[in-house]
Amino acid sequence: QVRLVESGGGLVQAGGSLRLSCAASGYTFNDYTIGWFRQAPGKEREFVALISGNGGSTAYADSVKGRFTISRDNARNTVYLEMNSLKSEDTAVYYCAAGRMYRSRWSDDYPYWGQGTQVTVSS
Prior knowledge:
Elements: E1 3-7, E2 10-13, E3 18-25, E4 33-39, E5 46-51, E6 58-60, E7 68-73, E8 78-83, E9 92-99, E10 112-113, E11 117-122
Parallel strand pairs: 2-11
Antiparallel strand pairs: 1-3, 3-8, 4-5, 4-9, 5-6, 7-8, 9-10, 9-11
């Protein structure tokens, strides 16, 4: 059974940094692309970043490009999202998801999801 568990969220001041982790189990980790998505109150879930199964390809939403970095450690079955220069508009629940579609930014292409971790950026 595929299981994804996010951690690392919290409260941070604008301009600060956080690192989110997504620990995966129950499948062959490097067979799946991992995506990070976020959902702010009253808004739809949106794509943030993704990394391919072997880590060789990444993609970012324009809103986080240059500030966020996604990486994966296949030995630890974990994907990381390093978030720097955080802004109040980054406040949201962040979810990691696993799927087989290569480089997809669509949440419907990710059948497996974690429970989410709250990130709150105070201005």
